[in-house]
Specification:
Layout (H helix, E strand, L loop, with lengths): L1 H13 L3 H14 L4 H13 L3 H13 L4 H17 L3 H14 L4 H13 L3 H15 L3 H4 L2 H8 L9
Length: 163
């Protein structure tokens, strides 16, 4: 029943019926207030509505309630992104670093972590992380032609040569 209702709510969301989706999820939450997946989806619904401050506690409760697997990874990224969007940069970095540590093969967390680093005034770390990710994932031959210098520069961003 929970999965079916969530699937209906997501379908409504895809059809841009955000309020109807939210209502369905809030009704589900009333029936299952401690279910980690329901808590996560309610948070996501607030997030999609642009109400990140309301989303944050639901994401946090979902994690505390035992959300796991891919849902946990997505929840951590959404929580970190929401923290960044409302100006909680330290919380954003902490959450997204946790996501990257727990799910190192999922690159979405790394991209959002780079954004959080940037917002937190850690521009060098942001650029370094994005260059590292680009070098690991690109198949663009024009970029790969410069892989060695880019790999060097990611660790030496401020280096200049004085003649």
């Amino acid at each position: 029943m929970i999965e079916e209702t969530i699937a209906r709510a997501k379908a409504l969301r895809r059809n841009d019926e955000l309020d109807a989706s939210q209502e369905l999820l809030l009704d589900l939450l009333a029936e299952h207030p401690n279910d980690p997946l329901v808590l996560y989806e309610v948070g996501g619904s607030y997030d999609v509505l642009g109400e990140e401050k309301e989303a944050i506690p639901y994401y946090q409760k979902a994690i505390k309630a035992g959300l796991d697997g891919e849902d946990l990874q997505e929840c951590l990224v959404c929580l970190g992104s929401s923290h960044r969007n409302v100006g909680n940069f330290d919380d954003a970095v902490e959450t997204l670093e946790k996501a990257v540590k727990q799910f190192p093969d999922d690159n979405s967390g790394k991209v959002f972590l780079a954004l959080a680093y940037y917002s937190d005034g850690r521009e060098d770390e942001a650029v370094r992380l994005l260059l590292e990710l680009l070098l690991e994932t690109t198949s663009d031959e024009n970029i790969l032609d410069y892989a060695d210098p880019l790999d060097y520069y990611k660790d030496n961003l401020d280096e200049v040569w004085d003649d």
